[in-house]
Amino acid sequence: MDIPIQSGYEMKSLAVLQGYKKFFLFFTGHKNFWVKGLEILTWMFLPAVVFSGCASYHPRYLTSAVVEEKLTVPSTKDICIMAGSIDHPVLKPIDFDDRDGLSPNEAAVLAVLLDPSLTVERDRRLLAGAQLLQAGLLPNPQFSYNINFPTGGPTEGLVNNFATNLNWDIKSLISRSARVDAASAKQAEVNLAVAWKEMQVAQGARMAVYQLLALNKQAQVRKEMEQLLSENVHRVRQAVMNSLLTKLDLAAAEAAYNQAQVALLQITQESGQQLLTLKQLLGLPPDYEIKLQDNIELMDNIDISSLEQLTASLDTRRLDLLALRQGYKSQEATVREAILTQFPMINLGVNQAQDFGGFYNAGPGITIGVPIFNRNQGMIAFERSTRKQLFDQYVNSVFAARLTAAKLLKIMLSLNNRITASKEAVQVLEKLLLTYRQALEQGYSDVVIYYNTWSSLAQKRIDLILLKQQLADSRFAFELAVGIYSIEE
Predict the structure, then answer these.
(1) Same domain, residue pair 42 and 87
(2) Is 372 helix (H, G, I), strand (E, B) or coil?
(3) Using CA atoms, how far apart are residues 239 and 223, in angstroms rounded to an integer?
């Protein structure tokens, strides 16, 4: 014969029930009551006692060691695993390999994986899940016990008077479905909102890569110009010594060289600050060494005709607009819940009692609130007003998104034309500079004219770099506006 093994929770529950039995028998003095009463108590308190140990308190102290552990950058192997298994409605897994430098897409995924601000956003998912769990819970039944002792008058032959009552508020059962629907839609809203934030961070990281690339290219042009002007100062100084140029020409050459030095220092500083900004977006410490891939090029043209059709259907892709839809759905369920809860409170229960003469009586009981003053009118009006506000907010967001996308299309079209014109101007100046260089070598020109031409060419190159950077910024902004991540080039 197998002997059943009682768990710790079962033994605990039996001990508690035995204690209840002894306690009430002491006051009632009537054992027959427990034939039925103890059975009710068993079904009521046994689950509570058994499951009371499932949730326990575990402290989580905020210490420096815990914080530093959280801020530690994962190993390259772990990053590769996470990048290959990223789960996002828009972003796709990639093969992460930064040994040849960091690409814009690798920077985007790395930012989504490591940016500490996204960890805070993702915690909202836990809160939404807890709210969904809470929405599905029903109130516990209520059990009451009263006992009265005969203390005066002719008490001979009298017994203790007691009464038990078990009731349950069924009003929450009426609105449970609406509460669960509202919490479920709210959870979907939070998930989409977090995904939208991740997409924004990813696009911000890609944009930061191109901005750093543009600054590095500007610094390269400035450095070439600074070196050329340094050589120019030396040549002008020799020419002054040979009485071919005046000291005024030397002063002008030195001033131009000093300006080039200041411009180079400034662009170098901006490049360093942009590198720190990129590290911040990627969730990397300031001393972490990163470099960009050598084959990254600034875009100089975008096919606008292939993008125009994306504007009309952006409300079906943009994650923030989809989140607003879920928020409206949640509010719709909340309005339904408010209407359902206008019904009065209804408590159903059973009663059992013994009077002083030892007679038992039992029967059902019902308590109904009388809805004279409060029929939940204020909450219904509030939730309906909130629903209207969310509807108008969604309509306004769709309108603003379409307008933003249309503006960005115009900006990219303009930048395409300006970049084409700027490239032609650079080519013209390069040919002119070559002509002046040949004339200078043959003695038919002077160094000042050559310097002025080179200065104009360098500025045009910088202007072209800035235009390409603006085009990249506009591209990523347009991707966000229409709810896509990558544009086929």
Answers:
(1) no
(2) coil
(3) 24
The answer to whether 372 touches 175, Cβ cutoff 8 Å, is no
**Beta-bridge mates of residue 368:** 346
Segments of 355-425 assigned E as strands: 360-368
- Boundary-marking domain end, from 31, 58, 85: 58
Q: Are residues 188 and 49 part of one domain?
A: no
Asked if residue 402 belongs to a domain, the reply is: yes
The helix (H) or strand (E) run that includes residue 347 is strand 346-354
Q: How far apart are CA 368 and CA 347, in angstroms?
A: 7
* Overall number of domains in the chain: 2
Is the Cα torsion angle 19, 21, 25, 27 positive or negative in sign?
positive
Q: Which amino acid is at 221?
A: V
User: What is the domain extent for residue 22?
Assistant: 1-58
Bridge partners of residue 102, in order along the sequence: 292
The model's pTM is 0.79
Per the CB < 8 A criterion, the answer to whether 162 and 25 are in contact is no
User: Does residue 7 sit in helix, strand or coil?
Assistant: coil
49 and 177 fall within a common domain: no
Contact 352, 37 (CB under 8 A): yes
Residue 302 lies in a domain: yes
State both tokens at 294. 């050598």
Clarify whether residues 217 and 279 are in a common domain: yes
Q: What are the mean pLDDT values of the chain's consecutive 10-residue runs (489 residues total)?
A: 41 47 46 46 50 68 84 84 87 86 91 88 89 88 86 80 86 88 94 94 93 94 89 84 81 86 94 93 89 89 85 90 95 92 83 80 83 85 94 95 94 95 93 83 70 86 95 94 75
Q: What is the CATH number of the domain that holds 446?
A: 1.20.1600.10
